[in-house]
Structures are given as C-alpha cells and as structure tokens.
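P.,

For your records, the input lines for the assembly:
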Amino acid sequence: MSAISPPAERLWWKHPIDRVEGMWIGIAFVWSMVMFFMMVYWHMYGGQNLSTETYKTTPEQFTVKAQAMVDQYTVRTEVDGQYPVVAPPVGSDVYMIARLWNFWPILQLEKGQTYRLHLTSLDYNHGFSLQPANINIQIVPGYEHVVTVTPNQSGTYSVVCNEYCGIGHHTMVGRIYVK
Amino acid sequence: MSTATTYRTCPRSGLQFESQAEKLMLANAVAAVVFLLIGGLLAIGVVLTRWPSIHWLEADTFYKVLTAHGIDMLIFWIIFFEIAVLYFCSSTLLRCRLATPKIAWTAFALMVIGAVMNNVAVYQGGSSVMMTSYVPMMAAPHFYLGLILFAVGALIACFVFLGTLVVAKAEKTYQGSVPLVTFGAITATIIAVFTIVSGAIILVPTFLLSIGVIDKVDPLVYRTIWWAFGHSSQQINVSAHISIWYAVAAIAFGARPMSERVSRGAFLLYILFLQLASAHHLLADPGLSTEWKVVNTSYFMYFAVLASMIHGLTVPGAMEVAQRQKGYNKGLFEWLRKAPWGTPTFSGVFISIIGFGFLGGISGVMMGTEQLNMIIHNTIYVPGHFHATVVIGTTLSFMALTYFLIPVLFKREMIAPTLAKWQPYLFGLSMYGFCLVMMGAGTLGVSRRHWDMAFQGSALAYEWPGAAYMMMGLVGVMGIAAIAGGAIYIYVTVGSLLWGKKLDQGQVSSTPTPVPATAPAAAVQTYGSSGMVAPGSFVLAIIFLVAFVLYYFINWKYLSQLWGLS
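Structure tokens returned:
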C-alpha cells in the first residue's frame, strides 16, 4: 500500500499519472532543454568560453619557451629580482609556469587586447584562480593549455593557486598587471 | 533451501527482521556512526582553521585533518550506512533471509580493515593528498590499499544485496514488483557497481605506482577516471537518500507514491544518465573537447536533473495526498502545517528535501554548467554545494531514518527524545547557513582546501575583500553549530543503543511470513489522473523553479562581465 510495500498493481508502468505530475514533468523538461541549449548558445554568441586547445608538453620544453619570452620582453623585476615583469606584444603567445610554489613570471597585458596564454604545471596539479575577476582554470602537469584571454579592465590581478599542492600551497600567488 | 535462521516481527512497526540481516544492519550502522564521530571531530579542526580570526591548526595538521575528514565522511560513514540500508531494503522489506550471510560478514570485515588502514595512513602523515589524491602527488601505499579493500568489501555487499533479491523472488516472499524503496535501492546498487569498478580501474594502478611497480599514471587520465568514482559515489547517495525520503513518507504518513510509473521512471533516468556527472569536475580542465564537456556535464540533456525535479515534487506530493486523505484539506498548506514537525524522522527528511533542492540542487546545476563552472571551479563554493547535497541531503536523511530505527531495529527506547526532537533543526538549519556562506565566499573567489586566506609568507599576497573574511568567519560559527547538532545525533544514537530501555523484540518464528498481497485496482484508482491532487506541492515546486531560473541567469550575467575568453 505504500512505498515500502510492493505496488498493488503488478504492472507499475501502467499506473496513472496525475495532472500535477504531468504538468511538472513538462515544465521540468522544457527547463532542462533551456539549460542545455544555453551552453550551446553561449559557445556561438557568448564571450566567455574556455578554450580546449591543448598540447602534451614536458617541463623542459615549456620552460624553454617561457624563458625565451622572459629574455625578450622583460621590462623590470619585482621582489628583489625574483619575478621578471614581462610585457609581451599584443596578440602574442604568453607563458605562465605554475610550480611549487609560485607562478612565474609576472605578466603585464594591455586592456582590450587579446593574448594566447599558455598554462602548464611543472610538478603537481595547480589552479589558476584570477582575482578579483574570479576566473578559475585547472592546470594539469604534462598538458599545455592555451587560453585566449582579453582583459576588459585595467588593474592589478592576482593569480591564486586553488588546487591543493602541498604544504606551501597558501604561499602560491602570482600576478598579472593590466594597463 | 531454507537455512537455520529466525524471523522476528517488530511489534512497533510490523516489519520483519531476519536475524542474520538484522545483525549485519546493526554492525554496518554502528561502523557508520563511528566514522561519523571521527569525521565530526576532524570537522572541528577544519572549521576552526578556516575561521580566519581563529586559524587554529598548523598547515600540515590542517591538510592531514582535511584529508581524513573528507574520506571518513564522504566514503566511510555514508557507505557503511548505505550497506545497512541495502540489507534493510532487501531482506526486511521483502521479508526474506539474507543471501550468504557469511560472505556479507567478510564484506564487512574488508570494509572495516580498509577504512582503518586508510585512516592510519593519513594520520601517519605523508598521505595528506586530500580525498582526490591527484597524481603525481603521492600518498603512502596503504592509503590506496585501504581504499581498495574497502571498495572490494562494498562491492561484495552490493552483490549480497542483489543475491537477496533473487532469494526473495525464488522463495516467493512477495508478489508482483518490488516496493518503490527497494527499486530505488537497486538503482543505488547499479550505480555503486559502476562507481566501485571505476575506482578500481584508477586506484589499482595508482597503488602499483606507489610501490614502484609501474612508473607513471597520467594526471589527466587519473582525473577523468577518478571522478567516475568520486562523483558517482555521490550519485549512490542521491539514489539512496531519495529512497529513504519515500520510505519516511510511507512510515510517517502511510503515503504511497502518487504514481509508481513516474517515480520509478525517474529512478530509471538516474541509472541511464547520472554517472555522466563526473564531467562536472573536469570542465575547467585542458584536453577535453567542448562537445564531451557539454554532453556529459548535462547528463546528456539534463535528464538526471529532470529526474531529481520529479522526485522533488513526488515525495512531498505523496505526503500531501496522504495527509489530505486524513482530512487536512484546508487551503494549499494545511497538510504541511499539520505534519508531525515534532517527530525527528519527519522533520529531518523534510529539512533534507528542501535543503537538497534549493541549496544543493540549484547550486549543483549552476556549477555544472560548462561556462559557469569557470567562476566557481575549486573555490569554496564547491564544498558549499556538496555539503548541501551530502550533508543536508544524505547525512540528514540517514539521521532521520536512524530515529525510526532505534526502537525498530535496535529495540531500544530512545533516550533524550527532546534533544532528538530539536536535533534536525539545529543540524539542518545551521548547515543551511554554513552552505550559504561558503557559496557566498566562493562567489568572491575564496579557494577551497586552503590553509591561509591571508597568504602569510607569500611575496605577492592577495588581499581578499572584507566580505570574504566575514563570510569565512560565519563558516566557522555555522560549522560549530552544525557539529553540535551532529554530536547530539551521536549522543542519542549511541546512548540509546547502550543505555536505552530494552523493548519487546516481538514474535520470533523460524519461517518468514510473506508480504501480504495488497488489494489491487480499487485503492489505486481513488486518485490519479483526475487532476491536481497535490496543489500545495505543485506550488512549492513552482517556487523552486522560479528560484532556480533567477539564480541560473544571474550567474550568466556575472559571467558575461569577465575577461573575454575563447
């Protein structure tokens, strides 16, 4: 007679549906479709979609490319020379290394301009959490993820590591300047 | 075929317990509560460290405690309890003997050994890898071995459950289809088998890596397969606790499903689509295609969300129909006002339903939307969401069911009934607050699994807004209130088991009494299809939908203001 007893009618799939349930199923189905096609719609017309461009890489290969950018476009250094501040040309490929426990180097980008930001980790998983904009991307070792970014506001942004990466995790913060 | 066992009919509930199954349920439930106790003690360390002005533990202790808290709560407490629920849904509801009790005890032993081994590994240090243990960060070999042993035990228990269904069918202890609650338990079991096999596929190689037999497990492959275990295990919980909702509706009100077809159809949708949700954790990852992300994160086309929305109507709907038949017919909500709010079995489940839907459900769909995920991935929004699903949804439902089981299964009178009466309110409502402030802090970007939001020792420290600090302080306050609520549950449960007045165990017989056949047709046709039998539940569902739609589009608005990304 109840949910903890076998149904009175053997053929439960012939049990009648009340109008309350029928209407709700209809509404919920329509809402499900709206949500599904919203994701598709945003890929066609929205301005914030995560790139899927990815390459296999190694710490050595990636470090060489990042170092080349640093050698060419460093404008100054910060924190007693530990962090080069790099201002790469508009539209170029820019590199950010995540490793225990920092993001390297500091990037300086221009507002309204587009860059191809390459991300990888040299060791464990890390998280790219851009604050205060609040954009969060996973960084997986062995994979070079190329994200096309267009900063829309000038200011000082922090990159907080938000994937647990060991005892120094809370010290792992990087920086991006947007002029 | 009948083996030497006895069957006892509980005089308080009319349920029939087979003696082997009863002992196993008791053992699994007690093990569950022990791990809830450990996990709860660890929770004190977690919240008092994340409360910025207290910031209690050192970093290494904090990460150790957080790892153990996650595993003890999400895996050991919940799965031990679920095994007890599976035995209840098969042997007790179908009134048959449990298949292969010896193997069931072996399963229990493996689970206990595995759980203890994993805990020891974490407390020894060197295995503070969080529940997710992403390679290449490595834990000690017995960390993985413990999980594997536990999983094998749980898998065996699943097959004992399935075997018991076969026994019931063969020995004709019931007629027709299994009860809806058992049907839901079967759903949970099917998902559990998928989950555990996924866990084995990735944890076995990782164990081999930890002892040096193989030299690499790809980090992205690990994440993809691990989440088929990690997320799907939460889908077992969803199926299990929704089954409990239906069970409690039946126990508290004598409610039967509005439509067996609708409720079971919704469970079938779970079997078909729920497992795809492992994609939720990979939306911000490199290397996976957009098509893969969109199709999987939406459970193909939100068919599992559709199923949950259906249950969200039909569970309160079943209660409403039963109450209206008792004459509580005034207006839209008399049935709800006159519900037994002082009975913790009911109040716990109702607080669970509302919290799971409004907080856990809506936030889960938002963060599981491919693009929207970028604004919350790995922020403390994520634990805010899953404490709403797993704590308010699953744990609170299990607590509510325990209050029913104390006299029925434990045969004890509940001690401190007044405390028990208030427990679901204290625990449930403080968890509502806890989840909300975590989601609030996560919306501001605060990271999860992070020892120090002040970034002490960092050359380039970031300054969180004051509101983020305030909300993390509230996380501490609400968390402590919830822990107090959890402590009351453990006190009442363990206290009743140890000191509660012994109750009459009822008639014992050497043969099972089959489930009586219910009179067909006439009863079923008293309602259904004619229209609007549960208008109050429908209004609640519409309020839910409005909240859902608003919140969903607010987040799109928020996303549209970010940097351009393509």
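Two observations worth noting. The longest strand of chain A covers residues 143-150. Chain A has two domains: 12-45, 53-178.

Regards
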